[in-house]
């Protein structure tokens, strides 16, 4: 006959085996959500940083300007093709909005610009200009085999 201690040990093992998959799934899900939130924050910060650089007069058409953009986007993987940045300067004229400048860097084939109608990006009066930054990147989630896309848009 088994002693009381041996019976408890067996039931503890069974409880552990039943709870383990749920605990692991919760842990992996929490880590995945944390990484996705971090990537969203990084994309938003990169969009704001790029706009500040553009507003301060950095020429993103020059090699030095592109290098500054790549340096700003290292945390999101811009230099390795795991992100894309589209920077567009729009102008409001009496006849409507037009795109004055456009700079793109990164994996722009995977993440093309979604700025189809410049008038929807900013509410400008004739003669005013605005910079629009679009940032795309991989979320880096642990639970999916195909990474999700994080997006951020900022207007200055």
Characterize the structure shown.
- The chain is of the alpha+beta class and 156 residues long.
- The protein has one domain.
- The protein is built from two helices and four strands.
- The chain has a four-stranded antiparallel beta sheet, covered by helices on one side.
- The termini are far apart.
- 22% of the residues are buried.
- The mean pLDDT is 87.
Radius of gyration: 24 Å
Number of discrete domains: 1
Oligomer: single chain
Poorly predicted segments? none
Task: Please give the number of β-strands.
Answer: 4
**Distance, first to last CA:** 78 Å
Overall residue-averaged pLDDT value? 87
The ordered string of helix (H) and strand (E) elements is HHEEEE
Report the total helices.
2
- % residues in beta strands: 25-35%
Main beta-sheet strand count, sense and barrel state: 4 strands, antiparallel
* Shape category: elongated
Structural class: alpha+beta
């Amino acid at each position: 006959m088994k002693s009381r201690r041996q019976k408890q040990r067996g039931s503890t093992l069974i409880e552990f085996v039943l709870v383990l998959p749920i605990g692991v799934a919760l842990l992996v899900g929490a880590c995945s959500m944390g990484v996705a939130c971090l990537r969203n924050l990084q994309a938003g910060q990169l969009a704001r940083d790029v706009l500040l650089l553009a507003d301060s007069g950095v020429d993103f058409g020059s090699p030095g300007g592109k290098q500054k953009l790549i340096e700003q986007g290292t945390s999101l993987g811009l230099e390795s093709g795991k992100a894309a940045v589209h920077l567009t300067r729009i102008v409001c004229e009496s006849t409507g909005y037009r795109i004055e400048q456009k700079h793109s860097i990164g994996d722009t084939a995977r993440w093309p610009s979604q700025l189809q109608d410049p008038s929807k990006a900013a509410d400008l009066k004739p003669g005013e200009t605005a910079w629009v930054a679009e940032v795309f990147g991989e979320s880096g989630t642990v639970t999916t085999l195909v990474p999700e896309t994080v997006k951020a848009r900022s207007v200055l």
